[in-house]
Amino acid sequence: MVRPYLFVFKKKEHMNKNRQKELVSWLKKQCKPAKNSFRALLAIGIVNGIIIISQAWLLAFILHAFIIEKSDRHLLIPYFGLVVLTVIIKAVLVWLKETISFSCGALVRQQVRRAVLTRLQNYGPIWIQGKAVGSWTTMIFEQIEDIQDYYARYLPQMMIAMIIPIMIIIAIFPQNWVVALILLLTAPLIPLFMIMVGMGAADANRRNFLALSRLSGNFLDRLRGLDTLRLFNRRKYETDIIRCASEAFRIRTIDVLKLAFLSSAVLEFFASVSIALVAVYFGFSYLGELNFGSYGLSISLFTGFFCLILAPEFFQPLRDLGTFYHAKAQAIGAAETLFTFLDEKQPQPQLMNPLGLTYNEAEKAIIIVATNLIIQSRDGKILAGPLNFTLHSGQRIAIVGYSGAGKSSLFNVLLGFLPYQGSLTINGIELYTLNSQQWRQQVSWIGQTPHLPADTIRNNILLAYPATDNNRLMEVVRQTAIDEFMHKLPDGLETKIGDSAARLSVGQAQRIALARALLHPCKLLLLDEPTSSLDEVSEHFIMETLQQVAFNQLTLFITHKLDQTLHYDEIWVMADGKIIQSGPYSVLAKVSGAFNSLLTSQEDSI
Q: What DSSP element (H or E) covers 275?
């Protein structure tokens, strides 16, 4: 039986007012890169207000001259020309406003996305892998995109909604104080009800984004495990769960839309009532029933037209603000996860510093020394250690042991992705004091599953070093035997490999990953079971190539296949996060101990 409540959030999960204020404050702080653009929008708003008032004055003057003063139409041609000019200027101002507004949103989005990606990069793959992939996809794409309209629509309209109504009141007040008073008394009702409706909309959006994040993560996990689900005949069960989750998300989306429509309906109602009151006032005034508002003077047709033309313009910015108010609610809902992620103040463990000491690339030799090294997770849990070792350039070290022994943790601490206690020095300098980006340029890593994110074979090989000359590129292509299958592809190195390298076999993809690692000479080569998914022929070839290049740098090789360690200088056997046995294959295979036990169990399994 499908349990839909797994994906439906409890109704009591409401966002309090203080939290909303905190998120709004955070959203406003992100405006810094677009300050100049907002100043330009402010200037455009002021000019637009002047044009609106001028246009109303011209139309009222022309109508009054035609109807009351019976003026010759030829005398009014210049005024008609000015009206046309105001229409053109308004169109240009609208174009400028839309263009600059979009750039405001784009600048802020770029800044926020850069901040998210930078923090993810600093956290490293170990931390990221502990979270659902779908949640990162939702944050980086959906949620950051959904703050666009807050900066491109809502904030610019907020400025216009404050400027233009005030300018119109200033223009109307000398003509008729009653109309000005009607507009002043009814105008505050619109933002008041907008706020009341908007509070519920922000909460609904927040719950909607949480539901979307969970749904995305759940769907992506099921998609990745589709083959396994088919093997165990779980397709129908998981399909029902996805269907149920989608239905829950659909209901939440409809709730958000209801609130958005309610906000627009409230705006239209109060704007219509206010304009109707102005029209009724002038109607009774012209009938002689009302004789106040014009400072003791009779109400002219010019005054009536002028005020009635400006009354809708007075409310138009507020109505537009109401139309875009859902963008604020949507941004608040999207901002909660972004704010929590980017502004978390919990103490971070000591990792490599992006602005740390410069690594001396000119040094040909590399010496890595670990003294009482204890590798930790970000929450302080001990993953491996204490470890004590000294490694030199040219050494080839194979690391073996059961899963969970601490092998991958050792690799990740060398890459600077995990914190540590004790000492881990590179040529006498503590690892965490080195510039992380510069150090990682000295390291090449090949994992179990080749990741080829670029579109073509060439671009995947040149991923880290796109400026590499063609001679060097072809050298690694021959070295890794990519040329053996490259000529069979329609476009050679320019062949598009498709999503997840669908056009290539696993062995071919691993050769490309190997070529990428060998493209640039490195000081430290980390091999994390690079042949675990390969057939026997591909495995033999990859191991032969690695044997040839292993002497050029310090090489650490994690493997479960003990026969691959035969030619390595030293073998480390790890268990429970410690190196419990070390030595060459010829020695370890002859003495009783952990390595011999692994060797025996592997032979028995064969």
A: helix 235-286
SS3 label, residue 435: strand
Q: Which tokens belong to 605?
A: 């399994």
Summarize pLDDT for 567-598 with one digit per residue, the tens: 888 889 888 889 888 888 888 888 888 888 87
pLDDT greater at residue 461 or residue 83: 83
pLDDT at 51 over 90: yes
For residue 97, what are the CA distances in angstroms to 38, 166, 382, 434?
10, 19, 56, 47
Domains 347-442+523-534+553-606 and 449-521 share a fold: yes
**Of 209, 173, 232, nearest in space to 331 by CA:** 209
Nearest alpha-carbon partner for 387 in 214, 235, 194, 575: 575
What is the CATH code for 4-342?
Answer: 1.20.1560.10
| Class of residue 91 by CB neighbours under 10 A (exposed 0-12, middle 13-18, buried 19+) | exposed
Domain spans, the chain:
4-342, 347-442+523-534+553-606, 449-521
Of the candidates 553, 560, 563, 490, which has an alpha carbon nearest to the alpha carbon of residue 525? 553
| DSSP state, residue 233 | T
Going by pLDDT thresholds of 50, 70 and 90, the confidence category of residue 47 is very high
Give the pair of three-digit tokens for residue 262: 């309610």
pLDDT at 395: 86
- Fold adopted by 347-442+523-534+553-606: Rossmann fold (3.40.50)
pTM equals 0.63
Q: What integer pLDDT is reported at residue 590 of this predicted model? A: 83
Q: How many CB atoms lie within 10 A of CB 567?
A: 12
Least confident of 259-268, 270-279, 495-504, 550-559: 259-268
**578 beta partners:** 575
Radius of gyration of the chain (CA): 35
- Residue range 449-521 in CATH 3.40.50.1400: no
